[in-house]
Amino acid sequence: MLNYFHLNEERICIFIDYHNICLFPLQAKIVLDIIATTFSEYCENQFTVEAAEVVFPNGKSYTFPELAYRKEMVRADLINKKVGIRETPENLAKLLTRMYLKSEVIGDGNQIEIEIPPTRADVIHACDIIEDAAIAYGYNNIQMALPKTYTIANQFPLNKLTELLRHDMAAAGFTEALTFALCSQEDIADKLGLDISATKAVHISNPKTAEFQVVRTTLLPGLLKTIAVNRKMPLPLKLFEISDIVVKDSSRDVGARNCRHLCAVYYNKNPGFEIIHGLLDRIMQLLGVPPGEKQGGYVIRASEGPAFFPGRCAEIFARGQSVGKLGVLHPDVITKFELTMPCSSLEIDIEPFL
């Protein structure tokens, strides 16, 4: 860590705290090299740096700053190919020299030897040298050309459907939220009245905090937590999110799969079940799914769920399969998420509608 530096007429003294240098040796050396070379210009003897011996707790001693130079070899034809230009090796060497990378042509006339100073710690790979050559040449000076491989880009159908639904959900008066994909076990299990083993949740092997223990299996907890920190906002609060959830799946090579879900929550002094029900009808209208079981339509049937108030829950069936649930949340769920007013929610899987 740099504590401070002292400037006088004779020398610049840079005081470095090496207490934690063992934790970040490379970064500390880079910072020290750059600071030392920068201020060395203002010394009485320009570009002169006085080294210091540093003794580590393990007894080993090192001399800092190192100010190490290194050399790299890059072929001129490789630079021309990657950048898309036709320059001689001599011209390329001049371009790199302009970028503080002293270069010269050696060997068979196609090899360029580049000397990398300690002030260019950003040059790690040959691609960094090629990038500097392109910058010195000027991106606007590179002649445009059609790619050799002709392809037509197309949006992923699921993402296209997601974007279309986002616009219409906003038009229905709901505000989009973007919540964390990781959450705690309590959020997806205990607070919703479920057992963690029944959620098919993917667990993080080494979670850093209790808030990021598993991958979410439902979007509902994230929206409820968002409402909890925005309780002072004017009512009603109408939020939605369209994102992926992850569940275990032994048939997949990775043991899990993503599902794109749509979740909406209505929070007000009254539950507003009719608001959520009307939103479902609007979503199905947009998806081209008619009401009724015939002709691949959709219906809702009375159901039960630990997260919902008894008698105020319904399961959604579309095209012959269950795609989600809607209903009024149980008071225990509302209380556990630190909410004080009734709330209704809707969550469906939108992938079957592609």
UniProtKB/TrEMBL annotation:
Q: According to its UniProt record, which cofactors does this protein need?
A: Mg(2+)
InterPro entries, per this entry?
A: aa-tRNA-synth_II/BPL/LPL (IPR045864), DNA-bd_dom_put_sf (IPR009061), Phe-tRNA-ligase_IIc_bsu (IPR045060), Phe-tRNA_synthase-like_B3/B4 (IPR020825), PheRS_beta_core (IPR041616), tRNA_synthase_B5-dom (IPR005147)
User: Keyword Nucleotide-binding: yes or no?
Assistant: yes
GO CC entries: phenylalanine-tRNA ligase complex
Q: A single Pfam family, by name?
A: tRNA_synthFbeta
One of this protein's GO BP terms?
phenylalanyl-tRNA aminoacylation
**Which superkingdom does the taxonomy of this entry point to?**
Eukaryota
* EC class (word): ligase
Q: What is its EC number?
A: 6.1.1.20
Q: Enumerate the UniProt keywords alphabetically.
A: Aminoacyl-tRNA synthetase, ATP-binding, Ligase, Magnesium, Metal-binding, Nucleotide-binding, Protein biosynthesis
Tell me where in this chain the B5 domain is found.
Answer: 67-144
Q: Which GO terms describe its molecular function?
A: ATP binding; magnesium ion binding; phenylalanine-tRNA ligase activity; RNA binding
Per its UniProt record, what PANTHER family does this chain match?
PHENYLALANINE--TRNA LIGASE BETA SUBUNIT, PHENYLALANYL-TRNA SYNTHETASE BETA CHAIN AND LEUCINE-RICH REPEAT-CONTAINING PROTEIN 47
Can you name this protein?
phenylalanine--tRNA ligase
Species per Swiss-Prot/TrEMBL record:
Molossus molossus
